[in-house]
Automatic annotation (TrEMBL):
Disordered: region residues: 1-20
Lineage of the species this protein comes from: Eukaryota, Viridiplantae, Streptophyta, Embryophyta, Tracheophyta
Domain of life: Eukaryota
Source species: Ficus carica
Identification of the protein by name: Gag-pol polyprotein
Bias (Basic and acidic residues): 1-10
Biological process according to GO: proteolysis
Single annotated GO MF: aspartic-type endopeptidase activity
Length: 87
């Protein structure tokens, strides 16, 4: 197995302790905008809840039929995340 194969295998297996240090793979993140109108036009599959993200409490809408995840601009700024046009 070449080095690239070992890297892919290590990422699939998760954090590595074999080398004497913990190496977690870098998470892939993407943030989308969700307006109040979008939330009000929701379906019956939407439930609300409170979750903790990076030590910040957030009120979340969980939609089992959603194809994307969304976050408010204010919360994205609190997390220090940049905005990116995905259209």
């Amino acid at each position: 197995m070449n080095n690239r194969g070992k890297e892919v295998q290590a990422r699939l297996e998760g954090p590595s302790i074999a080398q004497g240090r913990l190496e977690a793979p870098e998470p892939q993140a993407r943030i989308y905008a969700y307006t109040r109108g979008d939330a009000e036009a929701g379906t019956s599959r939407v439930v609300t809840g409170q979750i903790s993200i990076a030590t910040y409490d957030a009120i979340a809408l969980f939609d089992s039929g959603a194809t994307h995840s969304f976050i408010s601009l204010e919360f994205a700024q609190k997390l220090g995340r940049g905005l990116e046009d995905v259209s």
